[in-house]
Amino acid sequence: MSLDLATPGGITLALVPELLLTAWSLLVLLVVSWRHRTAEDSRLAGWLSFAGVVVSLAGLAALWVNHAAPEGLAQMVALDGFRYAASAIVLLAAGGTILLSLGYLERERLWAPEYYPLVLLATVGMLFLAGAEDLIVLFLGLEVMSVAVYVLAGYNRTSPFSSEAALKYFLIGAFASGFLLYGIALVYGATGTTNLVLAGAQLAGRSPPLMAALGLGLLLIGLGFKVSAVPFHMWAPDVYDGSPTPVTGFMATGVKIAAFAALVRVLMETFSGAIHVWQPIVAGLAIASMVVGNLVALAQRSLKRMLAYSSIAHAGYLLVAVWPGSPAGAGAVLLYLFAYGLTTLASFGFLAVLGRGGERDVTYDDIAGLAATRPLIAFGLAVCMLSLLGFPGTFGFIGKWYIISVVVAEGHAILPVILVLTSVVSAGYYLPVIMAMYMKPAPDAERYAGVRLWPAAAGVVALSVAAVLLFGFWPGPVLDLAGRSGLTLTQTALPLAGP
Amino acid sequence: MSQFLDSIAYGSWILHALVLLPLVGVVPVLLGPESSARRTALIVTTLEFLLSVGLWWALAPGQGGLQLVSDSPWIPGWGISYRVGMDGISLVMVLLTTLLMPLSVLASWHYITRRERGYYALMLTLLTGMVGVFIALDLFVFYVYFEVMLVPMYFIIGIWGGANRLYAAIKFFIYTMAGSLLMLVAIVVMVWKVQAATGTFSFGYEHLLGNARSIGAAAPWLFAAFAVAFAIKVPIFPFHTWLPDAHVEAPTAGSVLLAGVMLKIGTYGYLRFAVPFFPEVALSPEVSALMVTLAVVGIIYGALVALVQPDFKKLVAYSSVSHLGFAMLGIWGGSLQSVQGALMVMISHGFSTGALFLLIGMMYERRHTRMIADYGGIARVVPLFSLVLTVVALSSIGLPGLNGFVGEFLVLLGSFTSFPWATGIATTGVIFAAAYLLWALQRVIFNRLDNPENEGLSDLSRRELAVMLPLLLGIVWLGLYPAPVLRRMEPASQRYLELAQPPAPPTGRVSAAIPEGRP
Fold first, then answer.
1. Which of B146, B153, B185, B194 to mutate to test the interface with A (most CBs of A within 10 A)?
2. Tally of CB atoms within 10 A around B35
């Protein structure tokens, strides 16, 4: 199916997932303005919002299955497999977040159902960010997403840490947006267009002018903040730590997925000619993120902070996959985002049921002996830790292997070697989680009597863990899909790679 | 026998059955009651052993190549298929594994008293991993088995181990993982290099082996990555420091399997992958000298450290470093005798050291101490136990007529021509072995019975005898008549030597040696 994006009908069809979700979130907002007093109302808003995600996912699937493609040049929004795949992962993360929040908000007595429309609006922003074919759309998507997530981070009004998180995230986020906007302005100045492909065509075949190179640098900084790559990561631990746990999970998955999709698209579609300019920068960011993220995570006692630093390390692994700038690399980014998203969401889901009052102080000792009384939760969390570690038999391993493979295909082995060595370091903080649950005695028999997964969350984590194991053993179809989706990015000046 | 096996198409399903059966067995172990877990595990592992015995006949003797090969697509888009098969080397390793497994389950009968279902489920998973490693003929599959094996062992050490188990478990895990992840990068690099030369993207073993010459300048790095991964597993000095911790802290069955099977995966890795892939690097004078030196250092160092251990289990753990040094020396010895000897060392180490760990476990179950000083003179109280311990210790020392002698003698004989000095020094390792084990034996079962707590010790029970008997039979059989085993392995060793041709000496020296064109 080919769509003419210049006509109102064409652009409407092309934006079906985003439009459906926007309309749905306004509808939910309308509903909650009447019903926002009881736990019942909160639950209603949650399920309604989840239905919205499903509807949007259906719209996306309709586009994807019909291979919707633009007639001529894609303007404003991309119509390719890369967008569909990234959007699907974002929507899955959003749906999972909503289901995880259902019981959590009730337990923490956060009875303000506006939470759910905010999640939906953030998701709309993410979808635009992941699918933007124009720098202005990209910026709008980023802002819609960020503003909603700022509010979500501070959702627990009674907790000073939550407010601190929101304020920090807002200030740093605004700062990052400034960089990004200035970068967009410079790119526009150098090429006379904000369309990614057109700008790429302008820059192809010559060494980039200084103005474009500066613009590239500023864009990298702006997106680097959003994916929390070192040295733009300073906000992440405090923000992840202070936010309500499902929101942390949403930030670690949804925000990162969308920002990485945008980063890959900008680097490959617009700056593929300037690959020698950004490759060293991306390599430097990747190495710094992997080393700092993993080493600092080792020193954490709180599980939530450990996961925050580990997500910085994973941003580093993802940057390694970005580095080749090849379609296979884009496929590896998608696959790793999927694997990482599933695992991280489930990990935060488990963390959410294990703690109280924001889980800031759940340490390794607080899950000691969990396996004896809650074997299923312990098993699930253990699988997640092994997947984050990249252990064979889990999806995380397939993701890391794919990254190593696409970088080695370019004839480089230094980044993969650093990747595996820092992964070994990460065993030093993932394994103690398993160790505490299985190998240490519980402080007292009644310790985990209150730990119970609410049904919706149980469904999410069970499905995620099952998928992590399934794709760990049978990754063929997702590998193919990711590889094919990576190939759909509009190439301006790049040789093909991959088997 | 072969006809019967052919009639049931044994060769076509056995390798899959050996991998799947333990995994299927995990289900009844986990779902059944706690009390019957050990019985189920025993039935499954015994069945596995009985099934595997047929391999002895199923494998055509006299053929060096890989047999019973089966290939089914796994991730076809990426050149990965589930490819398994075996030769004589894999055969003896698989049989050793399947034999030690039911014995380990029996040895855990009373030792493991809590969370039995989990324990036996992990033992069965471990069995799958260990068998899988020895039959994998696709490097991706090999890597997955190589790593997956770590998890059950990590839990077995970490949950059912001794006082310092957490430290030992994580050290074991991180050491092994560090090596194997570098190997993963090396595998991927190798696959891409071979792809660049041949146009085929495949992780298949034979494909990579056949085209390994096309790797070129990266070969030393790739060999280094493989070599370090396997060196940690063997372990070769100075990568051995995880071993005493893991062995000492692990429960008896864990130590038996660690020493009996998992260490051999390292030497097997050299024989199957590291040396045949990169013979120019591996057998170059510099690398040979390094590996042989490390092997000899391991032999002497392991023996000397064993000599001063007050803890019997730690003593045996260090003796493993010494024994595996002989295997490494044999692999680099470069003659048929030395390679056959290395394989014999691997097998008999599985028998003797496995038996020693089992006996130490029995001592520990009675007295809850492994300190040599706490015993003394127990031969009078437990004569049968002492007899068995003496036989096993003598076999570990390498007394002619018992199994340990055959391998070490072949290694020393076969390596002498290539490395006379190193072999000469290694020979002293045999003397040290006699020293540390006989001295330990003297302090444990002879001397005066001066500790009243030892007076009430009970002798071997029928279950314990059932555990030791197969091992004793093996020890004597391999010592007196090793020919059938050697014959099975010979074609595979021969093939290894053909693959592992040392690099041709520089042409200048050749022309100097051959006085050609001289008047």
1. B185
2. 9
Q: Which amino acid makes up residue B460?
A: L
Domain membership flag for residue B344:
yes
Whether residues A439 and B151 touch (CB distance < 8 A) is answered with: no
Of A392, A479, A480, the CB nearest to B147: A392
Predicted confidence at residue B404, as pLDDT, reads 87
Count structural domains, chain A. 1
Q: What percent of chain A has pLDDT over 70?
A: 97
Asked whether the beta carbons of residue B178 and residue A416 sit closer than 8 angstroms, the reply is no
Range of the domain at B323: 283-502
Nearest CB to A413: which of B159, B166, B185?
A: B185
3-class state of residue A279 by DSSP: helix
Beta bridge partners of B145: none
Q: What is the DSSP string of B12-54?
A: HHHHHHHHHHHHHHHHHHHHS-GGGHHHHHHHHHHHHHHHHHT
**Cβ proximity of A59 and A16 under 8 Å:** yes
User: Are B64 and A485 within 8 A, CB to CB?
Assistant: no
For residue A427, pLDDT over 60 is answered with yes
Nearest chain A alpha carbon to B168: A435
Per CB-CB distance under 8 Å, the chain B contacts of A426 are: none
Residues of B in contact with A442 (CB under 8 A): none
Range of the domain at A385: 2-487
Please state the separation of Cα A223 from the chain's center in Å. 12
> A143-158 burial by CB neighbour count: b if 16+ within 10 A, else e?
bbbbbbbbbbbbbbee
pLDDT tens column, B173-204: 889 888 888 999 999 999 998 988 888 888 99
Mention every residue, 6+ apart, whose C-beta is less than 8 A from residue A163: A154, A157, A242
Per DSSP bridges, beta strands B80-86 and B67-75 are antiparallel
Which two structure tokens, joined as six digits, stand for A377? 């939760």
Residue B119 is assigned to a structural domain of this protein: no
Which pair of tokens denotes residue B390? 């003496």
Q: How many domains does chain B have?
A: 1
Task: Give B58 to chain A, closest Cα distance, Å.
Answer: 30
Of the ranges A464-468, B61-65, B104-108, B111-115, the best mean pLDDT one? A464-468
Residue A494 has pLDDT above 50, yes or no: no
pLDDT of residue A63: 92
